[in-house]
Amino acid sequence: MKLLHINTNDISGGAAIAAYRLHKAMRNCNIDSELLALHQSIKDQGDILTLPKTLTPLDLYHRLKEKIWSTIYLSNKQGRFSRFKFGIKVTKYIDISKYNVIYLHWVNDSFINYQVLKKILKSGKPVFWVLHDMFPITGGCHHSFDCDKYQSVCNYCPYIKKKRKKDISFYQQKKKAKIFNKYKNLFFISPSKWLFDSIKKSFVTKTNKVFHIPNIIPENNFKPVDTLFSRDCLGLEYNKKIILFGADSALSNPYKGFEYFSLALQALAIDPKIKRDDIEVLIFGSSYNKTIAEILPFKTHFLGKLSDVYSLNLAYNAANLFCVSSLADNLPNTILESLATHTPVVGFNIGGIPDLVNLKTGYLANYKDIDDLKNGIMKCLYSSKLFFDFSSISNYSAVPIINKHFEMIEWVKRN
Fold it and tell me: SUPFAM superfamilies this protein is in (predicted)?
């Protein structure tokens, strides 16, 4: 069986990492899998395909046009909204006919548009769209937050400056529904139970089959390592309580919820039951940031962007807990990584986080409840890792997840 994964990036970003791990796990199971990426970071790997460096003027024009459109028409509301109109003629560069199965992942940033999607679907090949956010099932937003119009009719979109009953979100939703309903060889995969339910409720996917298959955690890369050894490697003190936080785009990305993390730490700092000098913060995903350092009430270490899994594994193992204050998320790779190292996770009860975080694996705080987030941090900070049970992480290893994909593909072939 020959299979093609399509994602905008090869390893940059959460969706890309999830797609890359699935692709590599399939290859390890003797599936002839290839990954097509618009933006390539990994060099000299024959299984990673990329488009020509020189695209056609029309392709370049489409990419520029979406950036201009976004600048003019999108509001200042924090969050991402994408057009489904602009894209690159992928089928001009890649022979879709030689693949038995196609997987779409995160294909925005003027990569795959509805015209290219239709050409892929017309091939008759089974096409599985893995959702890494809500874009495929909305009128254009990547996270709807408290808006549920994607279940009926998208209009008066808060992401768009001019409020109209028939705005671009209305027409994009209508276009998606028409395509999705027409092609019975299009299927959807959700990594989380929350997004699985959202797909089932969406107006545009009401006739499509949906599967729930989680992301993969490469257990050979993320595993428990001695805490003192990890701290020694990272130059951290042995006797401190360490809170780990991923701060890639923390100040600019509204989904990260950095404001809630910082307020929870400020509440923790004035709690009479703790010694302020005993607690330190470890940040990965960002080099030294003066704003972050001044906001956080504890001594803060910055590891920068960690490109190697060995250093990232040490960071998880060095910490007493990993805090994820995301306000919208699917099934975060970072939570899977932390749990694989047997480091408890504290996060909000939102999106796919409850699939992974509970009292056995950390603490699930009430959504946007700063005091509850602070309580969860304190609980995990002063509890031994032996208090927790991380056995459930084995369900996310490569073998059981790839088996689910095998079963899904076989089901589609039979039906």
Answer: UDP-Glycosyltransferase/glycogen phosphorylase
Terminal alpha carbon distance of the chain: 18
Question: Can you tell me the distance from the alpha carbon of 414 to that of 397, in angstroms, rounded to the nearest whole number?
Answer: 27
Comparing CA positions, the residue from 374, 347, 340, 342 lying closest to residue 246 is 347
pTM over 0.90: yes
CA neighbor of 36 nearest in space, from 97, 123, 95, 110: 95
Torsion sign over Cα 271, 273, 275, 281: negative
Domains of the chain: 2-216+397-414 (3.40.50), 227-395 (3.40.50.2000)
* Token duo for residue 69: 């459109």
The angle at the Cα of 79, spanning 78 to 81, to the nearest 5 degrees, equals 130
Mean confidence (pLDDT) of the chain: 92
Chain-centroid distance of CA 225 in Å reads 25
Closest CA to 93 of 152, 49, 45, 42: 49
For residue 368, the number of C-alpha atoms closer than 13 Å in the C-beta half-sphere is 6
Q: Measure the CA dihedral 52/57/63/67, to 10°.
A: 140
How far is Cα 355 from Cα 372, in angstroms, rounded to an integer? Answer: 19
Question: Tens digit of pLDDT for each residue in 180-219?
Answer: 999 999 999 999 999 999 999 999 999 999 999 999 999 8
Residue type at 65? K
Cβ(104)–Cβ(128) below 8 Å:
yes
